[in-house]
Design a protein that fits this description.
The protein is α/β, with parallel strands linked by helices. Helix content is 46%, strand content 13%. The structure holds pyridoxal-5'-phosphate (PLP).
Amino acid sequence: MPNAFDIRLAARSKGAKSSAIREILKVAARPDIVSFAGGLPAPELFPVDALRAAAVACLAEGGAQALQYGPTDGDPGLRTAIAEQVSAADEAAARAAGLPAPAPVGPEQVLITTGSQQALDLISKLLLDPGDLMVTENPSYLGALQAFRLHEARFAAVAMDEDGATVESLRAALARDPKFAYLLPTFQNPTGRSMSTERRLAVAAVIGEAGVPVVEDDPYGALYYGEAPGPSLRSLQPDLTIALGTFSKTLAPGLRLGWVVGPQGVIARLSQLKQSADLHTSTLSQHVALGVMRSGTLPAHLALLRSVYAERCEAMLTAVEQYFPATARFTRPTGGMFVWVELPKGVDAARLLPLALEQEKVAFVPGEPFHPNGGGENTMRLNFTHSRPEVILDAVGRLGRMLERALADAFHAAPA
Ligand SMILES: Cc1ncc(COP(=O)(O)O)c(C=O)c1O
């Protein structure tokens, strides 16, 4: 029987569903299951010593400050440190691409958020009325689609090739007068694809022509296993782009610490909306992260993450190549956390998941929910950062054999 709350739900809450990922993660968390499902960093690589040292120091030296309420837009020291980090990355990327250095980012252009997921919610509140059209890649990050759907967005989906969103498809979508575009140019979730510098320049030019605001989500840019990524869209179109960053993949997701960089006026508006969401992001988390940034240990930590994850990425690619059916196509990411697999048309990855869990004790995420307007039932996302190479090889082998059996059954069952 519906309770007193259920019968009074607001229209927007009636359609809200729990993410498929979260439901799957409940089973995938069992110790007997090898999970390629979540976007989980390797827990054994969390920089516990650096975080402990920073936590002890900030409580010992400025304990009261680290435990007090703070400003909504974030700790001034952390905003400055992030502005400096972003400006340095912009400059390095511009230099590598042979472009002039963009204007540096100032602390007033940085808003600290409770993870970048909060930024996605605040941006939705800022820009979306029910029924508004917006642009996303096809496929795109499930958590973002969830936030946009809660604000009743409609989607113009942009086709991708191996270099990410295609210029022609993006141009056509932007011509439909959307509110904004949400793009992941760097080691995209879920596909792992990354835009070349050439593609970034072409995409930035199309954005400029259309004059449509862009949200650039970049949690994975520091996790590159070959060359560093090209210039950010924000550095190429600073007046039209706001960029999201996070400590979730470089320090630890439990800190719940992210940021938005953008024009000062937009940052001020987002900050107003954040006031009613949570007053401000955890002061303690902000002080601890700032302590780690100031300790000088971050570059070595990032180098460690890159080398360990590069090995796991290689193991995943080798295993998929070796054990998956020859008809499966898959991406070859050079950074980030995911490999994206496309099985033959007609195969439903969501229906294979229970078999994979029961028979082979392996979890993955079926790809359909990442598609803003449906489709992609024959796709799946595999995370490679959370498991060791030998575990990846073994579990992908089991998954591959299960897929071979499922494909053979589907073939035999097909009408003549
Ligand atoms: C593309 C993308 N954006 C945002 C997030 C949310 O991250 P956070 O932990 O900073 O909220 C994730 C998490 O996996 C992600 O992959």
